[in-house]
Design goal:
The chain is of the alpha/beta class and 363 residues long. The chain is built from 13 helices and eleven strands. The protein is 35% helix and 14% strand. The longest helix has 15 residues.
Length: 363
């Protein structure tokens, strides 16, 4: 447990230190693989990057190619360039998502167009995006928010290339059993410290489109190219990749653990989101009727030593960052005041889990 300086006593009088909301998943093989990298003295992009790329394709789509890059933001930037997004183009995005999406779009010289979301998927949909399509629209980003499944197929009705953002969704599967990341024209993943599988940092791009992947490989091949053109070093170190590879190899174990914790929580609370089939349980979400109800529950849990988060604060909504009229984004504005996330990570012990359930029963 992480000692935040706060403590409380449960009904049995046992001193409880604050249970953190999140903790990175570090599989058993991680130390061994990192030691292998250090012993090899090859620290830049190398054999563990290649291993992680193969593992990602095995998980998502065996017919695709993958490239490891420095982080999820650079992955999205490269994906935008690969599909031909350039200066002045517009990219449709869900407003209920992280600001890194804005950064990648602006880096590409394009303009983000935030859209309201579908309450069931917490992401952009054909209906919420259709009214914002213009002659300048060049792509749409399908974010699988908190591992929930965005309607990628419906977005193709807009007539635009689709980028699947699977940063929070590794391990989630559609109803037909296919993996997230397998339906977009190009897909991106993040391996940041808080993601399902982590390398501390890291990202990946995946696609079956050979032209896209050759563009990405060439763009990051910055060292002594045969001919000069604009490139950048977005490569990932093999130290980070070793940690990612270990996580990808044990993804099934992680998914099983999270599914078990979610099932235990649902014995005492309802979650309309975590009951969905195929999701990876990246977050465990409680949906309240009002902001007041959320605050009361959050205060109660934290008074008992259980950390929670509001997964996306109102101020973080992309349309608010950009100063747009919030009346055009009613679902985004409403949902961020109603969702609370409980701890669901591998650092939770059975004792922690039983304690959290007991506190939820008390509430």
């Amino acid at each position: 447990l992480v000692d935040s300086g706060q403590s409380s006593r449960n009904q049995r009088g046992i001193l409880q230190k604050m249970i953190p909301h999140n903790s990175p998943y570090i599989p058993e093989k991680a130390g061994e693989y990192i030691s292998d990298v250090l012993e090899s003295r090859w620290l830049s992009s190398g054999r563990f990057c290649r291993r992680a790329e193969r593992l990602l394709c095995d998980i998502v789509d065996e017919s695709a190619r993958a490239v490891m890059v420095s982080n999820g933001t650079s992955a999205l930037y490269l994906a935008l360039l690969a599909i031909g997004v350039s200066r002045g183009d517009e990219v449709l995005v869900p407003s209920y998502s992280c600001s890194a999406i804005l950064n990648a779009i602006y880096m590409a010289g394009a303009l983000p167009v935030p859209c309201d979301i579908d309450e069931n998927t917490l992401s952009i949909s054909r209906e919420t995006a259709a009214a914002r399509v213009t002659h300048a629209s060049k792509a749409v980003i399908a974010v699988h928010t908190y591992g929930l499944l965005c309607d990628v197929d419906g977005l193709y009705d807009l007539g635009l290339p689709v980028i699947e953002d699977c940063s929070q969704a590794l391990g989630s599967r559609f109803g037909d059993g296919t993996s997230v990341g397998s339906r977009g024209d190009i897909s991106i993943f993040s391996f940041y410290a808080s993601k399902m599988v982590t390398g501390g940092n890291g990202g990946a791009i995946l696609s079956k489109n050979v032209k896209y992947m050759e563009f990405v490989e060439d763009y990051i091949d910055f060292d002594s190219p045969r001919e000069y053109k604009r490139r950048f070093n977005f490569q990932l170190s093999d130290i980070n990749a070793a940690l990612v590879a270990a996580g990808l190899e044990s993804l099934d174990e992680l998914l099983f653990f999270k599914k078990r914790v979610a099932a235990e929580y649902m014995k005492c609370v309802k979650s309309g989101y975590n009951i969905r089939k195929g999701i990876n349980h990246y977050r465990f979400l409680l949906d309240f009727e009002s902001e007041r109800g959320l605050k009361d529950c959050r205060d109660f849990l934290e008074s008992r030593g259980i950390a929670t988060i509001i997964p996306t604060e109102r101020r973080e909504l992309l349309h608010n960052y950009l100063g747009l009229d919030d009346r055009e984004f009613p679902i985004c504005e409403d949902i961020c005041e109603r969702l609370l996330s409980l701890p669901i990570h591998t650092a939770l012990t059975d004792e922690n889990l039983e304690y959290i359930k007991e506190v939820l029963y008390d509430y």
